Amino acid sequence: MRAAVVVGCLAVVGVVGCAKKILKPPAEAFVELAGKKASYRQWAQAEELCLQDPALFKGDLDSMNALLAVFLERTSAGLNGHWGEEQVGVLEDAQVLLPIALSLEAASIDAAEQAGCRFEGLAQAKELNELAKKRLAQSPDLLKVAKAKVALAQWKEAHPAQEQQAREKTCADGAKLPVLFHACEDETSRLEWQFCDGAKVVATPGNVPTFQPASPALASKAKKPRKAPKQPAPEQYLEAAAKFPPQDVARAPKIPKVVPAKKDDGAAEPEGL
Questions:
Q1: Which residues contact residue 177 at a Cβ distance below 8 angstroms, ignoring those fewer than 6 apart?
Q2: Pairing outcome for strands 191-195 and 250-251
Q3: What is the C-alpha to C-alpha distance for residues 84 and 146, in angstroms, rounded to an integer?
Q4: The pTM is what?
Q5: Is the CB of residue 33 less than 8 Å from the CB of residue 94?
Q6: Number of H helices, E strands in the chain
Q7: What is the DSSP letter of 80?
Q8: How far apart are CA 102 and CA 43, in angstroms?
Q9: N or C: which end of the chain has fewer CB within 10 A?
């Protein structure tokens, strides 16, 4: 541990004496996040702060700057951007790991400014500290949206296989048409009932379900019975959709609507928020 040395001299009746006072720095603590490790101390409680080792003080600021820059970059997607599991994990970890480190660093910077210490890097460290605190304040709303987006992406990845499995299980030769094999609701609450002959019934929020005949391309791919039956009327498709059990509809996760908080000052916020 490095310590600053303060030398004081005293002259009494021709006798000169000098004493060295060792300024012990505060205990070192660490925070690890997003693959970065940073050091911080309770510099605000240090004895004769401005006489402490400036390299040690700046080393703490630099390491926190590097960690906070990565944190802000990894969580910059905001409410409208793309979130992955890694980014969600960083934001969740930050809620637990950063508050104490940010609070003590902010107190250290304030103490140095108020004492008039000539330490380098105070302004940049203060800016990153404040931005990180704002990001943490936004994290509850961000996580609601981010987790839903991750869940939706996973649902979309798995859904085609589920749809195909339902088609293969239900669309047998000789079945009486119309045969409804699958129903799903997307993240916008658009409902779609799918039939073995390629036809659909679709319902969007606020509108009644409508029948959509199979397109020529879909009809050519649809599994056809050995003996083609009479084509059902649209009303029969609508009736089949109405009778489909709601609990069997495959529903996509919904993205919650969050209203961003208004900025309370003129400070710039990271892109994406």
A1: 195, 196, 197, 229, 231, 232, 236
A2: unpaired
A3: 8
A4: 0.79
A5: yes
A6: 5, 9
A7: T
A8: 13
A9: N
Alpha helices in 171-202 (DSSP H): none
Taking residue 212's Cβ as centre, other Cβ atoms within 10 Å add up to 17
Q: Which amino acid does the sequence have at 58?
A: K
**pLDDT tens for each residue of 145-204:** 999 999 999 999 999 999 999 999 999 876 778 999 999 999 999 999 999 999 999 999
Quick check: helix, strand or coil at residue 7? Answer: strand
- Please compute Rg for the chain using Cα positions: 32
Give all strands (DSSP E) within 100-237, no chain letters: 180-185, 191-195, 200-203, 210-212
pLDDT for the residue numbered 22? 77
* Local structure of residue 178 (DSSP, 8 states): P
Q: Identify the residue whose tokens are 């649902």.
A: 155
Q: What is the phi/psi pair of residue 154, to 5°?
A: -65, -40
Asked if residues 171 and 181 have their Cβ atoms less than 8 Å apart, the reply is: yes
In DSSP notation, 21-58 reads EEEPPPPPEEEEETTEEEEE--GGGSTTGGGS-HHHHH
Give SS3 for 212: strand
Query: How far is Cα 50 from Cα 52, in angstroms, rounded to an integer?
Result: 6
For the chain, the structural domain boundaries read 26-153, 171-251
